[in-house]
Amino acid sequence: MEDEIWFPKSNLFSKLNSSEKKQLIRLGKKYTIQKDQYVFQAHNPGKSIYLLVGGHAKVFHVSATGKEVILWFCLPGEVFGLAECLSGDQRKVYAQACSDTTVIAIPENEFNTFIASDAKIAKEVIELLSNRLRILSKTLLSVSTDDAESKVTHIINRLSSCYGILNDNELKIDFCITHQEIADMIGASRQTVTSTISRFKKQGLLFVDNHKIHLNLPLWKKHRGKNDEKYSIKYIA
Known about the structure:
By secondary structure, the chain is of the alpha+beta class. It is 41% helix and 24% strand. β9 (164-167) and β10 form a beta hairpin.
């Protein structure tokens, strides 16, 4: 097991020192999951938390009608699978690799012992889970009440706060996302998302290169409106 791994600033463990990070990594087992395979599925026992090392994965729920609803994406350095480890319940959601993905699986008992040893870390876990709930609640409200353009704007704002890289007046959402994946995040059809993004392109708000969205930041700020709440990067991971 390698001792060094990338922990981004948005990650739960950003406040750990080098020794604590190495200790955490050594608790787990590293393995690779091929694209489209599951990291875990709903109704599985929640026996591990996962640290994503390479690739990216999506966490989603399946509705009663069989429709996939994406809750969030996980990129390198991010942690997922926390809730059931802390509660001891079965998984409520699915986690699936969107590309060939490498994770470190940390056993539930080892992780719980680790966070119990430091009140600072325990507090970070609580803050992470509560803020994920807050953000998902806001997304649900948007999905329930907004028109298509507002829903797409909301999700782009959320993704840009998580994964945005600023370069002068341009902000790139630094991972590949398809129109279908955006649709699955907002409860819309792929055609609706495609037509909305095409309209944004014509307005000069953004362009897409290799499935990565690039925002014209001055125009996008005007578009999103003064009342659109900014997301905290710290708590999306």
